[in-house]
Amino acid sequence: MFKVFLHLAFLFEFLTLTLGQDHEKICREKWTLFKASSACYKKFPSHECFDSAEANCVHEGGHLVSFHSQKEMQFITDRYSQSSIDRLWIGFHKVGNTWEWTDKTEVDYTFWIDGEPKDHENQLPIAAFTYLFDENKWLTREKNETSGYICKYLLK
Ligand SMILES: *[C@@H]1O[C@H](CO)[C@@H](O)[C@H](O)[C@H]1NC(C)=O
Fold first, then answer.
1. Are strands 146-154 and 87-95 parallel, antiparallel or unpaired?
2. pLDDT digits (tens, 9 = 90+) for 64-98
3. Which residues form the C-type lectin domain (predicted)?
4. What is the pLDDT of residue 85?
5. Alpha helices in the chain (DSSP H)
6. For residues 151 and 80, what is the distance between their CA atoms, to the nearest angstrom?
7. Is 144 in the pocket of ligand 1 (CB under 6 A)?
């Protein structure tokens, strides 16, 4: 009798865990979950300028990716930087004299390569991209240049 009870208890726990996971947030198909930030990420390889990349991310229900820790960035770039020449827009851009994330989250983490961020001579609007060749550190680039990009949306 006790054994049966034990089995039931395990079954119950199993069901709670399994069903619990269904309730737990999951990302849309082809998006990657990073639990610690409760967000989903996806790489878009088609080359776009910064503004259309951001517009497409908004269309997808998010923004260009923002990073708030080394772990978050490593997790994502490990998955998405497949080739050493892959340059991917992230959502960090210069607005006036300030660097901000397009999703308006706090700037609490940056990973610039030495010498960056620097202003470009011609004063065109600039934003940041991440580059596997340089250990995924960030570089500045004019917004009208094109590259692939990473979108991020928060789970609700
Ligand atoms: C970006 O804009 C500048 C100034 O209009 C232009 O000289 C440059 O060729 C543009 N770059 C691209 C990739 O369109």
1. parallel
2. 999 999 999 988 888 876 665 678 999 999 999 99
3. 36-152
4. 64
5. 2-23, 50-59, 70-80
6. 11
7. yes
Q: What is the Å distance from ligand 1's center to 83 Cα? A: 26
- Return all residues near 53 (Cβ < 8 A) that are at least 6 apart: 44, 64, 89, 147, 149
Name residue, tokens 């949306």. Answer: 153
Ligand 1 pocket test, pick from 124, 140, 146 with the greatest ligand atom count within 8 Å of Cβ, gives 124
Q: Rounded to the nearest whole angstrom, what is the distance from the C-alpha of residue 141 to the centroid of ligand 1?
A: 11
Nearest to 131 by CA among 96, 84, 94: 84
User: Could you tell me the distance, in angstroms and rounded to a whole number, from the CA of residue 142 to the centre of ligand 1?
Assistant: 8
Q: Which portions of the chain are predicted below pLDDT 70?
A: 1-24, 81-85, 132-134
